[in-house]
């Protein structure tokens, strides 16, 4: 059975009954419309602004649009490439001609941005309910463009980003780099600022240690169980060559626990 858009939406946590699917085409708007239209060199910011401005005619755009807008860009007459998924936070202005919405990019389907191509069965239709588009066939999913590793001292990841780093092809160089070092890492609970200082040594590289956090959120640490990992931020305090004696890594871990006071006012128990 051929893959369709519907299962990808559901897998990304998007209920098709609560989503709109939009296909933009490159077009020059009439000067009196006040809109610039889109072209091949339009920036993401311009596409976002264009999408957030809609007709006041409810025959052209829903009076009560849903929370998620899945936005594609036309390719040829019968295909469309995913640009992004937007979260509609509500209408912010409305006149007799146009309505403006507060829309922001969502992390839903972020790993498929500019990679997913679907067949578009209704060439004259530019928007529809996702329940209709759910049956549209997936034509292809291109390989993701590799993302350069930023360096150990610039690495700051949310839990969602950590999960992406551990599973997506575009982060292959990141996994290679994290596999090459031991070290001291920091987990910050961004809800209250409390710190957890941990280490990767012995049989575990940073990649191996962090892959456990990506899987279960707590890494087996009692202090982190029961906390919501979506508020965690991961960073590195110091990295070591795998040949570094364990006692040196232990000393560095103890130093950072003292420096950050993570035993008394943080999430470390010892």
From TrEMBL:
Domain GIY-YIG: 180-269
Domain of life: Bacteria
CDD domains the UniProt entry points to: GIY-YIG_unchar_1 (cd10446)
InterPro entries assigned: GIY-YIG_endonuc, GIY-YIG_endonuc_sf
Identification of the protein by name: GIY-YIG domain-containing protein
Organism name: Agromyces bauzanensis
Biological classification of the source: Bacteria, Bacillati, Actinomycetota, Actinomycetes, Micrococcales
């Amino acid at each position: 059975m051929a893959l369709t858009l519907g299962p990808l939406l559901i897998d990304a946590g998007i209920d098709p009954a609560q989503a709109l699917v939009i296909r933009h085409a490159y077009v020059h708007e009439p000067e009196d419309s006040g809109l610039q239209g889109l072209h091949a060199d339009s920036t993401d910011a311009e596409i976002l602004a264009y999408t957030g401005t809609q007709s006041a005619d409810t025959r052209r755009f829903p009076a009560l649009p849903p929370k998620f807008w899945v936005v594609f860009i036309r390719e040829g007459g019968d295909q469309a490439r995913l640009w992004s998924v937007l979260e509609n936070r509500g209408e912010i202005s409305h006149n007799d001609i146009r309505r403006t919405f507060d829309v922001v990019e969502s992390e839903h389907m972020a790993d498929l941005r500019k990679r997913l191509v679907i067949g578009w069965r209704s060439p004259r239709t530019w928007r529809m309910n996702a329940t209709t588009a759910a049956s549209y066939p997936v034509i292809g999913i291109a390989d993701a463009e590799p993302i350069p590793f930023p360096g150990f001292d610039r690495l700051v990841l949310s839990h969602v980003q950590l999960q992406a780093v551990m599973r997506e092809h575009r982060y292959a160089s990141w996994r290679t780099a994290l596999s090459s070092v031991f070290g001291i890492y920091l987990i910050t609970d961004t809800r209250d600022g409390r710190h957890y200082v941990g280490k990767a040594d012995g049989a575990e590289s940073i990649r191996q240690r962090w892959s456990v956090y990506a899987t279960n959120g707590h890494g087996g640490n009692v202090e982190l169980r029961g906390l919501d990992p979506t508020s965690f931020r991961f960073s590195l305090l110091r990295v070591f060559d795998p040949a570094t004696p364990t006692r040196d890594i232990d000393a560095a871990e103890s130093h950072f626990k003292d420096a950050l006071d993570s035993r008394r006012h943080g999430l470390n128990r010892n």
